[in-house]
Amino acid sequence: MDIATNKTEYAQEFENLAILFGVNESFKLVHNEREDNGVLTEEFALAMDDKTLSKSFSFSLEGNLSELKEKSVKKRKVKVFLYDALSQMLGKVLPWGSLTGIRPTKLARDMIESGEIKESIVSEVFERELRVSRNKAKLVPMILRNQRCIIRNDNLVDLYINIPVCPTRCYYCSFISNELSRVKDKLGLYLDCLIKEISAMREIIARKAYIVRTIYIGGGTPSILSEEQLDRLLGELNFPVTEFTVECGRPDTITAGKLDVLKKYGVTRISINPQTFCEATLKRIGRQTKNAQVLESYSLALQRGFVVNMDIIAGLAGEKLGVFKRTIKTLLELSPDNITVHTLSVKNGSILKNEGATDNGVSAMVDFAQKALLENGYKPYYLYRQKNQLGGLENVGYFKDDKVCIFNIDSMEETNSILACGAGAMSKRIYSTEKRIERQSNAKFIEDYISRIDEIIEKKKEFFK
After folding, report:
1. Contact 457, 196 (CB under 8 A)
2. Do strands 395-399 and 379-384 pair parallel, antiparallel, or not at all (unpaired)?
3. Where are the strands (E) in 197-337, listed by range?
4. CATH 3.20.20.70 fits 156-455, yes or no
5. Where are the domains of the chain?
6. Strands 39-48, 51-60: parallel, antiparallel or unpaired by DSSP?
7. What is the pLDDT of residues 358-382, one digit of tens each?
8. Architecture of the domain spanning 1-76
9. Residue 247: is its pLDDT beyond 70?
């Protein structure tokens, strides 16, 4: 791809769209700007082979928009032009139109809260002005309506704990996660350091008079820990929270004893993630789980009164629509409180990236899941997108009986600060009145985290000063 531009930010927007279009032709993007009597004009030309498309945008420099908002509006207009040009040149449309960001619903909320649009016309604006498909545009206001649990308060925070260890590595995974066999001898020391960081975090919470709303232990696979290790970790998290989630994604790591420990410490919600109910697919993606283990784990969780989420993935290798439909049918029969439908993402650092992946009719799978879940009483409540997802699609969480996951909403909509502990964990500090977010990440790898724990704690204290 040949990109010529004197505005790096616009080159990045073009590259992001080009990736979604699957572009590998030679393009040239030329950008100029000129100012005349307080009016700024941005001029663009996109060329491919013998085709050239041009457009200009003009903005008054004395308008009512803040500098940040003006920049945001300009960037959206540029992206729509680039999308239209690529769509015309390549004869292709994308489900999310000109949107390349992770959080379409956050964009909609920002537009509503700034007074740019009204909530009643969100889907219309997304479809007409941002080129989002009708089906996806209708999904956005549905999700906004189901996010009424949002509370904006800079003293209200979520606590995240990371356990970056799994039994084996799935072929689509790019997380900084370790196979248990490689780090088993370091796990005890990792917990020592993690508990030391949690203790420091407790001091920050007390000093800042923060109120912990939710706790979320993710990974990796936190249920890889033994009963004794779980007991030790959870004993450090004695906050009176609204919601307490522990990911138990691999059913083969779940035991009655571990669930009893979770119950003892007030855990309210767990994830049991089959990903698919086709055992041949499970074997292909590096999982040893059997369907019987999913059913047994789910039964144990229900007996103890946990709210249960189940994840599935559309577009897994070798699966066609018929196999995916059977997974949805099985999920509906089990009727968990939450279901998250992921679209396969071909990520750098994954085994899948090296082997390649095909679309496999994934759009039809995602559409089928949405229709089936809505017809069976589930409602969408959060949505996010990742780079290199098949078909340029998305991940959507569904709920029933008002059992949303508050942490998922808070983190995806970036409405509350997150205090994050553990290797690879990222804290976020939200300044709501200033419309500003700051991020601070821990060392990614377990070995680095252990060796640098004191430095990490000092940086965290400074970050939340």
Report:
1. yes
2. antiparallel
3. 211-219, 243-247, 269-271, 307-314
4. yes
5. 1-76, 156-455
6. antiparallel
7. 577 999 999 999 999 999 999 999 9
8. 2-Layer Sandwich (3.30)
9. yes
